[in-house]
Amino acid sequence: xxxxxNIETRLPSYLEIVPDKPVERFLRMFILSSKMVxxxxxxxxxxxxxxxxxSVSMNRVIERINRxxxxxxxxxxxxxxDHSSHVQAMTALSQSNFIEIRYNESLHAKVYICRTRxxxxxxxxxxxxxxxxxxxxxxxxxxxxxxxxxxxxxxxxSKWGLERLRTVRGSKLIKRMTTRR
Length: 181
What we know:
- By secondary structure, this protein is α+β, with helices and mostly antiparallel strands.
- It contains 5 helices and 8 strands, in the order βαβαβαβββαβαβ.
- The chain has one domain: Endonuclease Chain A (Endonuclease, Chain A), CATH 3.30.870.
């Protein structure tokens, strides 16, 4: 599906609308970034292994986290047997010493944050971190780059994800990060 932006409604340079596969776009940006990533935040009610038909698998994400010792915070719903890919993804993520996992059954938000030493980007999206969301659902997202007037927006999303959502009532710590940079 082609999407075009009306010239009269140009967005500031720190924002980008992603009308097609926004979660996959975020993951590709994370994997392909040559910058040193300091923190990765994944907030999604359902997380899958991302195997068939998705350009970035969960295994590739975990490999980069482990190779570069990236502090990673995952907030999701508790996996149920109905979502075997979610169970598999949480099992795989829990094997990393650099990942903290929390469950919150009230979670519906989807926010993905990649902070680098001198910048970063965040995705506020309708899409879960699943193959179904990427391959078969109509999703939209907005990427906020940590530059210029985007810095306070990026910082607010980071604060919400790293402070408020991690500590709000109902967020249960499941696995601590056992190794830090």
